[in-house]
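Record type: monomer structure entry
Structure origin: computed from sequence
Chain ID: A
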Amino acid sequence: MQPTPKSLVLDLLSSLRGQPMPVRALVAAGTVFGISPQSMRVALVRLLERGTIERNERGQYRLAAAAQAVQAHVAGWTRLEERVIPWRGGWIGVHTSGLGRAHRTRLRRRARALEFVGFAELEADLFVRPDNLRGGVDAVRAELRALGLEPKALVFALGQLDPAADARARSLWDGSALCRAYRATRAELAQSTARLERAAGHDAMIESFLLGGRAIRQLALDPLLPEPIVAAGERAALVEAMREYDRLGRACWRTFMKSHGAPHLQTPRTAVAARWPQRSGTEAWT
């Protein structure tokens, strides 16, 4: 699926981790994907008006503060396994009763935060995840709030669920389906790597951008489940495969970025990547 002008702008700016990108480079990138210069400039104006991006005195653009929490979360895909600790069977809960559902922006940000940190709904307004993330409930609470969960939401440790509730909690995720998805993406990356070694120019840029973006989206939304809910080694193998693909993708974009006066992409698709539900890129969550 081709990116929209807004998502392309945001994905490229996200990949630069705070460095600005010249307008001419953004516009030129649009032409690679068949997007007109006018459409790219309109997207820049609208994102600037929304406060999603900002412009410096030289007319270069970068992500605004509003998008940084999401970017930090997604850019951490290379270090996913460092976030995980052995699971002792406990849970972390989030209770959202009383927060209301009328304010659409707050509701969207709440859903974003819970999804990004791997929570699933056990009962009405009660969301849980295994307590297997480094830093425990304090770190999870801080991350949820940074991503948009209201401060009034209760975030707490659940020491012991009764056997029936524990079994229901474990069944909220399909570990087998997650593992199949890990393996399928690894296969796609391997096949694409073989093609990119023969491809040149825009074809290589487009393929690495789109497939890398889908893989990073998958990793950014991964719930980081422990054994025995999921075979964690499969997830680690995907992260390693994506690291290799990332290096190849950077090479595909290097000449283009240099020729248009843009900083070299530190990671060509560590952007808030490719196809978020309903919307694209950072745009979906700011």
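Annotation 1: Residues 232-259 form the longest helix (28 residues).
Annotation 2: The first strand starts at residue 53 and ends at 55.
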